[in-house]
Amino acid sequence: MILTIYHQQHRLGCHINMQLLLLILLEMRTIYGDVSSHYWESPYSQPYFDNSSRREVTAIVGQAALLQCRVRNLGDRAVSWIRKRDLHILTVGILTYTNDQRFQSLHTEGSDEWTLRISSPQPRDSGTYECQVSTEPKISQGFRLNVVVSRAKILGNPELFIKSGSDINLTCLAMQSPIPPSFIYWYKGKRLMNYSQRGGINVITERTTRTSKLLISKATSNDSGNYTCSPSSSDSASVVVHVINGEHPAAMQHGNNSASSQTQSLSKTLQQLSRNTVAAFFSVSALYHLLHSLVQIFATTNCYVVIVGVALSLQWPRLTQNARRRIVAR
């Protein structure tokens, strides 16, 4: 009996203790609200950088550049952006501390990201920028910005000669574009070619390789003109196409093979020059051997007197003529 009463009292005591514990937890939640996992470590941890951010960024001239810095356990510290080349403070917190209003700090309340936005960047903006936290001592993380000029390039010569009835094949590359262009348009003059109603025109664009091809089958003289490749994120490039009847003496191309034809012409020229050089060398060599043989013959036969006599006989008419002129003059 006594044992039963003891167990009942013990269970009652445990139940009361559990109720008290739940009441205490509910009271803490009412006072402090939901407590995040960072609450317990924030007062005792120093800020540190999250290295998942990209440390090197390539931007195109005129298109906004973003440098993203992530700082954990920031607490009440401030985040600043500093241009390293001149140690100029650009932003502190979300405030801009430079007269160049292209620089702006972006931050969402409660997030760990502090982003430096540079509107309309120019090549002179390339360099290192530091994300700095106002700890003691200060900690910083560098970010490299490369601002490039993205230019389109059409493969081949800037002026092409195509035989009438052949195909026009133009290939355009979007050079130095950090991201694939959203589109690449082809123009003939001011007329868009990508959606041309003329038959025989085909545009093949591969965004991943940043290339686009313009194919025009069975070209006619009406297809002559200025063709322009214009990617969405690059400066445009142009080429002049001449569609002619018959052969062009200097730069006729069949399917854009001007480079190969010029190479063949250069090869033929070099071969002819080498033949002429070899022939000249052997001619000089033969003459040298002939003169050397004559000298040896004269030296062995003591024909020096004969040589002098021949020389005088060759000069005798000239000497007698000069003598006659002197006598008449007297």
TrEMBL record:
Organism: Glossina austeni
GO cellular component: neuron projection membrane
Keyword Transmembrane attached: yes
Record PROSITE patterns: IG_LIKE
UniProt name for this protein: Ig-like domain-containing protein
Residue ranges constituting the Ig-like domain according to the UniProt record: 47-134, 137-240
Keyword vocabulary terms for this entry: Membrane, Signal, Transmembrane, Transmembrane helix
Signal sequence interval, chain numbering: 1-33
GO biological process: synapse organization
Transmembrane intervals: 297-316
Tree of life domain: Eukaryota
